[in-house]
């Protein structure tokens, strides 16, 4: 419980003064959180790099370390976006075409075929 409260403080400080370019239903949205899982969302590569760097800076300030092995970048390809170069502490982060988040597959092309197959076949 204390860890979750501490993580919430880190996220509030990270997102302080951040102006996101993503809106869903007219509401600004730049992150999703569940327990210790954090999803950062951005409309541009520059915005995502800024969020990632700020999260690392704030985490380090409180002596928390981000596990770079667990971080994945997924870019929505439905808008013909190219690959990204997002860095964390001098290390380029891995970009993936799909990943499983809390039991559901998320794909970079917006296709839900993999999720449907995993649930029903």
From TrEMBL:
One Pfam family name is RVT_1
**What domain of life is recorded for the organism?**
Eukaryota
- What protein am I looking at? Reverse transcriptase domain-containing protein
Do you know which InterPro entries this protein is assigned to? Answer: RT_dom
Q: What's the encoding gene here?
A: ORF143725
Q: Which organism is it from?
A: Arion vulgaris
Cross-referenced PANTHER family: REVERSE TRANSCRIPTASE DOMAIN-CONTAINING PROTEIN (PTHR47027), REVERSE TRANSCRIPTASE-LIKE PROTEIN WITH RNA-DIRECTED DNA POLYMERASE DOMAIN (PTHR47027:SF20)
Q: Domain Reverse transcriptase, which positions?
A: 5-103
